[in-house]
Specification:
- The protein is α+β, with helices and mostly antiparallel strands and 457 residues long.
- Helix content is 34%, strand content 23%.
- The strands form 5 sheets. Strands 1, 2, 6, 7, 8, 9, 20 and 21 form an 8-stranded mixed β-sheet that branches.
- A hairpin with a 5-residue loop joins strand 20 and strand 21.
- The longest helix has 20 residues.
- The protein is elongated, with a radius of gyration of 24 Å.
- The protein starts with a strand and ends with a helix.
- The structure holds adenosine-5'-diphosphate.
- Adenosine-5'-diphosphate binds next to helix 1 and strand 7.
Length: 457
């Protein structure tokens, strides 16, 4: 099948949808390809907290923020591994993109502005935002092809003039004046994820296979920050392999009563309530990580968790009944010694850890700098929840210029080729900054749509 369009967008996540919508609004014909049977990718799994620095809403609310402040915070958060040029695009254009996102004449996406701040939340989380965007793209006349994967760029005299694509029973040649790559990250591709992360649980989108990384070899694309993958501490993994981030549960447990992490030696090793980055580095050193809880903190943990998609009362019951498993989600013991035995931790280690912990509570703090106020109970039962590091977003990818054009390894813009969203590398440095993943999808998508439109005129 041969198609001809103005702008071809590959990947229908947050970035691909905003790119398509803005290109349509600039008066172009748009073909949008999505390899999965549904649009949304990682964006539809996201919480949709979205950076709004410099937006009208933020300015009207009086909240103090600026591109310079956002940049400084993201550089510090990302340990200066950020690509500054990409970061500059983000901090300087995110406000305008956010205005467009909530404008009825723009994307018309519903956001909650009841609490002023640096970020606002999309109503219905990522899934809600994606649904609105897809509807808007269709209403504006975009041609959306689901179950259709972009496979190869068509290049003539060094210029990208379209792409080949495949569905189950068709092969497409799509001619276009510009191609926007919005294929998301590469977390689901073991050949691209650095080995050190592969022992962690992958909890991202299935379609994040880094296809654009492969496709752009043909234009000698420059790749940056490919060694960085975003990791979260405090996750459980179910026997099915699905992972769930446990921060609501963990926070409640630490606030309620004694709860602490131990390693495979039954020894505490970090400030459990410290910065995520520091906790990740500490958890990485261990073979296993267990959260040890008394009854009150276990109840608080469940209160924070039950109701989240894969954590129900039935799950908890089932997991506890599986107490003898060699790789348990959670176990229960009448005493700390029972628990240590089931988990194969050294005899006496948990009792010693609890005694030390309670002595630290009396002192108000411990050697890791955690403030301690509530003892772990001297009476059982006790629980252990196995805690994992999990990864989802990838932070490396294509190197772009301020027009969202893909750069080759000579740092020259590739004619006709643009990129947006998670496929772009370098924004975050080595760990992501809250709200900026979704904010970047929206901002970079819109920028790429506008930029590609102006260049093909
Ligand atoms: P972002 O919004 O940052 O681009 P997402 O993960 O939300 O990231 O969106 C990327 C989308 O691209 C996903 O829906 C994914 O299934 C899709 N995708 C990945 N590879 C291809 C491909 N080769 N062809 C078409 N769609 C693709």
């Amino acid at each position: 099948v041969e198609l001809t369009t103005d702008i071809l967008v590959i990947g229908a996540g947050g970035a691909g949808l905003t790119a398509s919508l803005s290109a349509l609004q600039e008066g172009n014909k748009v073909v949008l390809l999505e390899k999965m049977s549904f649009a949304g990718g990682a964006s539809s799994m996201a919480g949709a907290g979205t950076t709004a620095t410099g937006s009208k809403w933020q300015i009207e609310s009086g909240y103090e923020d600026s591109p310079e402040m956002l940049k400084a915070d993201m550089l510090a958060n990302g340990h200066n591994y950020n690509d500054e040029a990409t970061l500059d695009i983000f901090v300087n254009t995110v406000g305008a993109a956010f205005d467009w996102l909530v404008d009825p004449e723009g994307a018309n996406v519903e956001y909650d502005n009841s609490e002023p701040g640096r970020t606002y939340s999309g109503v219905g989380r990522g899934a809600g935002v994606v649904k609105t965007l897809l509807q808007r793209v269709e209403d504006a006349g975009g041609d959306v092809y689901l179950n259709t994967a972009g496979t190869e760029l068509i290049i003539e005299n060094g210029k990208v003039v379209g792409a080949k694509a495949e569905s189950k029973d068709k092969i497409y040649t799509i001619n276009a004046k510009a191609v926007i790559l919005a294929t998301g990250g590469f977390g689901a591709n073991d050949e691209l994820v650095p080995a050190e992360y592969q022992e962690f649980v992958y909890a991202g989108a299935a379609g994040a296979t880094g296809d654009a990384i492969e496709m752009t070899k043909a234009v000698d694309a420059d790749l940056i920050n490919m060694e960085f993958v975003n990791v979260q501490p405090n996750s459980i993994v179910m026997p099915s392999g699905l992972g769930q981030y446990c921060n609501p549960g963990v926070g409640g447990a630490y606030a309620t009563s004694g709860a602490f992490l131990v390693n495979e030696n039954g020894v505490r090793f970090a400030n459990e309530q410290g910065k995520a980055y520091d906790l990740i580095q500490a958890m990485k050193q261990n073979k296993t990580n267990y959260l040890i809880l008394d009854q009150a903190s276990f109840d608080a943990f469940n209160k924070g968790m039950i109701g989240s998609a894969i954590y129900t009362e039935e799950n908890v019951k089932e997991w506890l009944e599986n107490n003898g498993s060699s790789n348990p989600v959670m176990v229960k013991g009448e005493t700390l010694e029972d628990l240590a035995k089931t988990l194969n931790l050294p005899e006496g280690s948990l009792t010693a850890a609890a005694e030390k912990y309670n002595a630290d509570v009396a002192a108000g703090t411990d050697e890791f700098g955690r403030k301690l106020t509530v003892e772990i109970s001297n009476d059982g039962p006790y629980y252990a929840v196995q805690m994992w590091l999990r990864y989802y977003a990838t932070l490396g990818g294509l190197h772009i210029n301020d027009q969202m054009q893909v750069l080759n390894t000579k740092q020259e813009a590739v004619d006709g080729l643009f990129a947006a969203g998670e496929v772009v590398g370098g924004l975050e440095g080595d760990i992501y900054y809250g709200g900026s993943l979704f904010g970047w999808a929206m901002t970079s998508g819109r920028n790429a749509g506008v930029s590609a439109s102006s260049m093909i005129k």
